[in-house]
Amino acid sequence: MAEVILDGVTKRFGETRALDDVTMTVPDGSFVVLLGPTGAGKTTTLRAVSGLDPIDAGSIRIGGRDMAGLTPAQRDVAMVFQQYSLYPHLTVRENLEFPLKSPILKTPKDAIAARVSEIAETLRISHKLDNKATQLSGGEMQRVSIGRALVRTPQVFLMDEPLSSLDAKLRADLRIELKRIQRDLGATLIYVTHDQIEAMTMATHVGVLDHGRLVQFAPPREIYEDPVSLYAAARLGQPRINILPADLFEGAPPRARHIGLRPEQIRQGEGSDATVKRVERLGDQTRLHLEFAGHPIVTVTDPHTPLRGGEALAIRPERPFWFDADGRRI
Ligand SMILES: Nc1ncnc2c1ncn2[C@@H]1O[C@H](COP(=O)(O)OP(=O)(O)OP(=O)(O)O)[C@@H](O)[C@H]1O
After folding, report:
1. How far apart are CA 44 and CA 11, in angstroms?
2. Atom of ligand 1 nearest to the CA of 192
3. Looking at domain 4-233, what is its CATH homologous superfamily?
4. Among candidate residues 227, 226, 244, the one with its CA nearest the CA of residue 294
5. What tens digit of pLDDT does each residue of 193-223 get?
6. Continuous segment of H or E residues that includes residue 189
7. Is the CB of 16 under 6 A from ligand 1?
8. Does residue 38 have its Cβ closer than 6 Å to ligand 1?
9. 242-323 falls under which CATH superfamily?
10. Phi, psi of 188 (to 5 degrees)
11. How far is CA 153 from CA 13, 49, 100, in A?
12. Where is the chain membrane-spanning (predicted)?
């Protein structure tokens, strides 16, 4: 597996700068998750690294080699996209064998069979190995697509929301499996998702993209606990970070325009009164919807809380984030 280095990568589509001077080092063996709202440049980053789209400026190196002008095959990357791309006339087994049967690889037959059955087991599609790809459900097809990437050991895996079409249970299981496979292989993986849980649990590093610019690149915990901006802070955390005018509370530093409060930054039972609007029991989390000086605040509380709508609850910020008028962290 290999390190991937993007240096000043820019990609334009007409007037749009899909990637704007992106510099990022993806360490060998890391699991990098790209986060950002739709249009931020996540897919464009994967396509640029894969060689599917040429870049307009900058350079991309994989394993120390400049990738300029090289095709996806020459770059030795394996890709999984949101839309499964299987050979419909082949069986699941043949689809999984296909990447290993490349004449360049010269993989022995029994090694291919062993690898295919191992991957099929992991992705729980062993019972479908002799089915045609067209006879599968959407979730099964997606698992085969992931399997087709995983049978190989490329320099880098590139995955674009590979679990998004799966149901919640399978997604939770495969999240753990994918992470395990990545760790066992020591694979370098660049992964796009909108799912925060995937980002928090699988990533060694998160890259936050905003209109084609990389605004923060750090371990997920660091982005959560030490975000550089309001935008980066809002990418992680459920419920979302509360952003309120800075002057609602005491202690705002001079240039502060906004205060950012995650649930653990809101001390309950001290400070000034908020009104409980609603107690929302989600099973694994109990959320409190509050109103404070006319502003809504969402936080979490004890599942056995006696609080009810209409009651008062004192709250006080505890080590909050402060942001200036441009959304930069102070
Ligand atoms: N082939 C294309 N032609 C024109 N514009 C494009 C093309 N591909 C991407 N773009 C534009 O580049 C920007 C970045 O798109 P990209 O698909 O990388 O975003 P994304 O972060 O992956 O979004 P999503 O979460 O919706 O997949 C967007 O403004 C998009 O409209």
Report:
1. 8
2. 22
3. P-loop containing nucleotide triphosphate hydrolases (3.40.50.300)
4. 244
5. 988 888 988 999 999 999 999 999 999 999 9
6. strand 189-192
7. yes
8. yes
9. Nucleic acid-binding proteins (2.40.50.140)
10. -95, 130
11. 32, 17, 10
12. none
